Structures
1.
Amino acid sequence: MSDMNTAMVEKYRSNFLKEVEANVEEGQWVKMCMQCGVCSGSCPLGPHWPHPPQEIFMMIRAGKRDEVLTSESMWLCTSCYNCIVRCPRELPITHIMHGLASYAKKLGLTPAKQPTAEFSQIFWDNMMKKGRVNELKLGLSLYFKDGFGQGIKNAMANQKLGMNMMKAKRMSAAEFFGGHGVKDISGLQKMIKKAEEIEAAKLEAN
């Protein structure tokens, strides 16, 4: 457990709900959940969630900090927004789930080998190099993340997709040697760094 996580546990030991309200996007809405289960029934991945949204909210209110922050549930959200549209209390469920995932990541509690978390990090690292996503390098990073042999198998299995992307000019060999980028990449990187510093300061203050 990191020093930061230990400090958070001590500070919020008596009330995990307060911790969520202070550190998770839209976390103040968790206490408004009435446990109807409409969100789970509306989710296309509902049967695959270890803990559906209303259960996550119940666990937060019950103080089950470790179970919530190490759950894979938040990482399964596809941002379809069905849950928000159908929630009778109009809770921003999608935002809360993404907020919980983001907070867990900051605390170093991301589940090991979680595909969505891995993709998010690879996508972010790719985008931050030039300010725009290099789709060829993104695909290669994803194909080969589990080793060279598996990468070859993935590439062969998806060669038709790759050819279609090239025909649609969504991917080209030129991207391998650099590709397009924003005009002021250093400015973008400085802006992102400043935003991360502000967010870190906010966490410290809370």
Note: The chain has two domains: 3-111, 115-197.
2.
Amino acid sequence: MARSPRVIVIGGGIGGLTAAQALTQKGCEVHVYESAPELKEIGAGVALGPNAMKVLRSLGLEDPIRAVGWEREQMLSRHWRTGRIVRQSTTARADTIARYGAAGCSIHRADMLDALANALPSSVDVHLGMRGVSAATEGDRAIATFADGSEVEGDVVIGADGIHSKVREALFGPDAPRFTGKVCYRSVIPVDTPELEDLRDGGGSFGPHGTIVIYGVRRGELVNVVCHHDDEEYKHESWITECPKEEVLQVYRRWSDRISRLLSASEIWYKWALYDRDPIPQWTIGRVTVLGDAAHPMLPYLGQGACQALEDGVVLANALERMPDDLPGALQLYERVRRPRASRVVLYARERGVDNHLVSPIAAWKRDTLIALRKRFTSDVGGRGDAWIPSYDASAPDVLAVA
């Protein structure tokens, strides 16, 4: 009997743990190395589209994720200043399943990480406090190096170490991010008033120089709020930098009273600058590859960052199962399947960011009119021309045949 491939996964976030689950189910020996002292996520929401839920279903993880998530029944878009409803989209579960094969949900990042970690088989070794700094191929082995100077060997190394990936840098050199002139403010607000309950079904507002996105998480007990805003001055790319509530209220002082009351309901706000990166032309060298944000960091305007990482994990595992005697070839197969789609999502998210931040009232009216026309006269229920994203099933048996 052939020996099970030994796979080293650098990064214990959503992408790394999903890949570990998928790889284990395909018979791989998996070791996860995470830089943090515990498997823990910061407080923020994650939108999981139908494409992500199909991946989770294939791994037997859909039910535990839904149990701690939130499924909205409609999405409301309001005028930024008056609060008037300008668009209303129903997201009836049966209709979404019929159209895309699954219904999406939204979830707190910490809850999702807990669910993924709890579902890992005992055979998966998780090593904490191990910061990966490099990876390379040496003969028929892959070597991962850590900040403490230690090394581990495997048949394959997977860099799932995030947007500032050291594995990606070791393979291809430093990246060249471009500041977009946009920032995000975010908070997670407990639902303790009837008005906040009305906001859990999501949606938000398009406004001059920005967008506000709102949706429920943790069974609807919390509301996740992400406020996008044009800001040429702030250039710090970090998810965990706090900012004063007064700054957020000042930025959105001209928005509707409804928005002001929502923003005032939280005392803790975080702020980070948005940087854009071109799709990289290669993910794999030898026995080392990357996935998730390490492979395709993207702007947040489509809510697809975590979804694409989940797709990566299941395709990678299927490729290794397909070609157990040629693991470098299996990684190349994984890249051939995933890189074109993920790159397309990266570029589409870039376009959506421009579209969402229109300043001209005429341009914004044209955008909103086109959305309404698409919804009324085509099968595009969202009106944004992105149905190709949720309709995809990365776990389908014929996905590898595309390559």
Note: The two ends are 28 Å apart (CA to CA).
3.
Amino acid sequence: MIELIPAIDIIDGQCVRLTKGDYAQKTVYSSSPAEVASDFEKIGFQRLHVVDLDGAKSRHIVNDQVLRQITEKTALKVDFGGGIKTDDDIRIAFENGAALVTVGSIAITEPERFLAWAEQYGAERLILGADVRNGKISINGWKEDSSEELLPFLRRFVDAGIRNVLCTEISKDGTLQGPAIELYKAIMAEYPQLHLIASGGVSSIDDIKALDAAGIPAVVFGKAIYEGKINLKELWDWQNA
């Protein structure tokens, strides 16, 4: 059964969502991310994906205190990303309660640093963020496209023992137009050992069921919750039927 991971994106300490990663297309849903996280926990969810969008834009961790508020208020297993660029950034994330840290840009710009972190903290505590636009990896809060093709990019890290990969199809993110199922199937066909987390475009419980049917291990979803497209209790009941 697919792992369900609700998401909280943070700008200025608030719970927001962007469309296609565009900071100009921002919707604020709550001034208290910790309260939103608590509501997820009350339903029964055990995992949470938190993105520091200020951090992603600034290239260093910004909303570490919001992370701390969430991890102190709940027992959720939080994976945290956005702006993790230095040894201090990743240390701060773990010190403020992150169970896992998602790292994207550094894997492109400083792969040896990423692999050193995997050795220091444990590969199981790192998630490789592979954000994709037009088949190429995008970095620095999706503001820059690299020359790296997705599947070859993943090879080095899979060979080094990385198993957690979060893949966001940027053209789908925040659009509520359905996930990039064929992309995720292609990744799983190439690297069946991965714990692949699909992200972007989820608009309904049917989308999540389709990902589950395709054999995708996990899914992150956010906007569909906040726009009322997914009833979380109904989703939880389906998973636990």
Note: The mean pLDDT is 92.
